[in-house]
Amino acid sequence: MHRISQRLALLCGSLCLALALVLVLIGNLSSRYILEQQSRAQLATLATELAAQVAPLVAVGDLVRLEATLRGMRGRHNLQQLTVEDLDERPLGQAGSGITPNSSVTRAQVTIDGNIAGELEIVSAPDPALEEQRGMSFGLLVLGILGSLFAAALAGRWGQDHAGRINALRVQLAGSGSGADAAGDELAALEGAVAALPLDLLRPPADSEQQGGDYQEAGLLYVSLASLARYVETLDEQSLLEYTEAQRELIAAAAALYGGSLSVVREFGLLVSFTGDHATGSPGFRAVSCAGVHRGRRRPAVTARRRIRPGTLGCRWRDHR
Length: 321
What we know:
The chain is an alpha+beta fold. Helix content is 54%, strand content 18%. The protein has 2 domains: 3-129, Beta-Lactamase (2-Layer Sandwich); 217-320, Nucleotide cyclase, GGDEF domain (Alpha-Beta Plaits, 2-Layer Sandwich), CATH 3.30.70. It is built from 8 helices and 8 strands, in the order ααββββαααβααββαβ. The chain has a 4-stranded antiparallel β-sheet. Strands 6-7-5-8 form a 4-stranded antiparallel β-sheet, with helices on one face. It is rod-shaped.
């Protein structure tokens, strides 16, 4: 696996796992708080109802019936313990035992004719909904871990594809003999290959106006006498001179029309340079226009032992700064 793909897989997997843990933690805390609030409200309501039911027995002091009533309430409502105490916190009746650290304790006052006569305490087992919620949170955590592994695998595959493309660019810049893996990662190797390029020579001037007189905008038109090279041996000297002179006069007239200067660069080509300001347009536009004029005016070729096909002159232009 490429180094960049390893880093992407580790980063993406870690982020997904951290996000899953945060979401599971927030969901667990919020749902647990809601369930606990609901459980407390239900137990408070139940304790108030049971306290109202045992109040007549406390009023008459019938402790035997009070004990039996508490046992019945405990079995009917699935409670761990019920205790009735007087105002001095002495137990008047009790049913059940076995309190655990997770048990919930709820108290309600026992009133007789509006006067407080004691207190009822109920102890209940943990709400089954809380246990289910804990299991659901564990399941979500497992899903989050699996999702993080899947995201890491996808990121690693995506990183491998892009690392291959980066390595291909590095090899293309560094040369065909530099296909070996670099010591660092792919991005560092690509940066090294780019740094080794002569960018100062390849990069054009940022702003020609700031360079003063060192740079000047110019449009160059090169007219290649493409067919002349194939027929030069079949022409006599006089015909060759007449043909080249006719082409020179034609190109010189077109160049003068657009403010260009004509230079002979070699036997089978002419160079026209356009610089400076002109009413016709920019140097590049004038070079293109001159090329169009030259192509539009096709002169007959010079007759000799063989005829040069008309319209075979090649015109190319470049815009130099």
